[in-house]
Amino acid sequence: MASTEGLVPITRSFLASYYDNYPFQPLSDNVSSLTSQIRSLANDLVQENPPSQDEKLLIEEADRQPPHKIDENMWKNREHIEEIIFLLERSHWPTAPSTPDDEELANGFGKLSEKFQNTLNTLKSFQSMNSERVFNTVMTYMPQDFRGTLIRQQRERSERNKQAEVDALINSGGSIRDRYALLWRQQMERRRQLAQLGSATGVYKTLVKYLVGVPQVLLDFVRQINDDDGPMEEQRHRYGPPLYSLTAMLICIRLFLLLSWGRYNANKLKRHQVAVLEQAVNVYTSEFERFIRFISEVFANSPFFISAEVAGALETGKNDEYKEISVAAGKSYEVSFTVDSVNSYIAWDFSLVQGKMSMDIGFSVECTNLSGEKTLILPYRRYESDQGNFCTCVVGNYKLIWDNSYSAFFKKVLRYKVDCIPPVVEPAQSTAEVE
Fold first, then answer.
1. Dihedral of the CA atoms 286, 291, 83, 132 (nearest 10)?
2. Quick one: which of 116, 130, 120, 136 has its CA closest to 297?
3. Do the strands 396-403 and 361-369 form a parallel or antiparallel pair, or are they unpaired?
């Protein structure tokens, strides 16, 4: 078993510094322009003929923002790629080729289907390898005896049951959409089980007691890793936007194909429409595969645990971020906080970046309550530097003011850090915890 001594789970601050070393080269401008073009072509088809119920559902999805989570977008891309491959299969074409133009179009569709199949294989491989990497990394921190074997057996049994559930749905005639709804529910169930294990709640209390020797750092990791504002939020912030754009592009491609198939006999595809479709597919598949290769490298090199010293240094650095602002002669500078809870703390630390002459700046703090009444919290006084804080007694808007209006000639370069810290509320103990 790998040692966890002195280790803590990765933090969002750590991932921020780690991701600085992995900037993603922006998507091609063609992603945005072709998405707009293909959606415009789809809109033209809807105007000519009202959409069916299935078409309406896809239009609604195309109008929504893609999911916020990286893995959910990956599953969405996989689902829509399979739906497009289904549409492009010869047996699902709206009509059999009857002219040389039809045959040429059919051959083109075959090539598009090939491209999507290659991209689907790349995506499946990425998801499988990433899942195995996470599991195997976690297992290196498990006791290397019957307890680790038990965890592996439970995982294998759970995955067999999940696959049987998917097979049953397919055999009963379930659609691609139904299958992916089930796959995502299963993914959420895996997350829920991990979080329960980390929190040792419910039946998992028994499991954790049985698995004496499981490092607490591992339980902490599985409990918090997917929190909405946890470490993975940094991943979503950095790499989510290009993936969301690709998801939106793919949905528009599928929408155009679905609408075209439904109106094929009345309105055959024009050459310029086919050209835009081919361009869109080429750009999507190449850019999406580039994103997968990139994110695979990022994931492969990212650790799950770091030393407590590294985590502490990163948090300290994060909290020590100062800003600098130049306050012109005759002007003032303000920072405002909206405080929703009494007993919050407002704190400040500032100094002037001195030149050859020693200078000062006026500073005061005031509050405007919900009724619009203004109160002076800290009277005006001139400082070269100051640190301070106070506890709020009312909710409202609090304003910190640096005043250089008395100066006729000299600007002041202010270096400052301010913060509003909400009150600490002790969590209520449940009866079970008290016992």
1. 130
2. 130
3. antiparallel
| Paired tokens of 211 | 């698995």
| Residues 51-69 pLDDT 10s | 888 899 999 999 998 888 8
What pTM value is reported for the model? 0.64
- Buried b / exposed e across 189-227, counting CB within 10 Å, b at 16+? eeeeebbbbbbeeeebeebbeebeebbebbbbbbbbbbe
Q: Report the C-alpha gap between 167 and 179 in whole angstroms.
A: 9
- Per the CB < 8 A criterion, the answer to whether 42 and 256 are in contact is yes
Pairwise CA distance, residues 432 & 40, whole Å: 59
| Beta-bridge partner residues of 390 | 346
Percent of the chain beyond pLDDT 70? 74
State the Cα–Cα distance between residues 152 and 193, nearest whole angstrom.
15
Over the stretch 403-420, which tens digit does the pLDDT of each residue have? Answer: 999 988 888 989 898 888
Contact 352, 334 (CB under 8 A): no
